[in-house]
Design goal:
This protein has 7 helices and 8 strands, in the order H-E-E-E-E-E-H-E-E-H-E-H-H-H-H. It is an alpha+beta fold and 208 residues long. It has a domain of 129 residues: OB fold (Dihydrolipoamide Acetyltransferase, E2P) (Beta Barrel). A 6-stranded mixed sheet has the order 1-6-7-4-3-2. Strands 5-8 form a two-stranded antiparallel ribbon. Strand 2 and strand 3 form a beta hairpin. The longest helix has 48 residues. The radius of gyration is 35 Å and the shape is elongated.
Length: 208
């Protein structure tokens, strides 16, 4: 009787081992299939990344031309470097005949005086001027510095709003003509210009 029980236990043990081996082998085969598929996908991706160069379908990576040198200051957002007139990216300073126009120019002049300015050329604006992001030797952005001084407004249409948080409190009221230009209120400009041409001083015209 004991012998029969031992034989049955042995048979049961063999069956259990066989079942486990079968399940393990199936899982192993599935893993091998997944690994093989992953290898094929990685190979296909690598092959795509190393496709032969085709000049017709190739896209040129943008390369920003850089100009370095002393800057001649035209107004609060325009400089000239090596005979290239450059508009500071993303900001709007008052014109020379507008309130704070001369003050903006002198502030930019003070920043640039004796410095070699690095201008990263990006594009041309509607007036044919070169637009560039301009930096002082210590890495400061001239556009940002003019905004922080309260002598230029961020122009989100061109800056993406990167200088908006740097604006000083009440600057839109202070630089009301630049603010009007950004908001498309051309009649404000026209009225001011008419007052200037007619000998009138216009609102806040003496605030320089």
């Amino acid at each position: 009787m004991l012998t029969e029980i031992l034989i049955l236990l042995l048979i049961l043990f063999v069956i259990i081992v066989a079942v486990k081996w079968s399940v393990g082998d199936e899982q192993y085969q599935r893993k091998r299939q997944r690994d093989a598929q992953q290898s094929i996908q990685e190979y296909a991706k690598g092959a795509k990344d190393h496709e032969p160069f085709e000049a017709q379908s190739a896209k040129e990576e943008p390369i920003h031309r850089v100009i370095r040198g002393a800057a001649y200051v035209v107004d609060g957002d325009t400089i000239v470097i090596k005979k290239t007139q450059i508009r500071l990216l993303g900001v709007d300073a008052p014109e020379m005949n507008h309130p704070y126009g001369r003050k903006a120019k002198w502030a930019l002049l003070a920043l640039c005086k004796g410095e070699s300015i690095r201008a990263e050329i990006l594009e041309e604006d509607a007036h044919g001027r070169t637009v560039a992001k301009c930096f002082l030797p210590d890495g400061r952005d001239l556009s940002a510095e003019m905004v922080k001084l309260g002598l230029a407004l961020d122009w989100p249409k061109f800056s993406g709003g990167i200088y908006r948080d740097m604006e000083v409190e009440g600057v839109c009221k202070k630089l009301w003509l630049a603010d009007a230009r950004q908001k498309g209120r051309t009649y404000v400009w026209e009225r001011f210009e008419a007052q200037q041409n007619g000998g009138g001083s216009g609102p806040t015209a003496g605030q320089e």
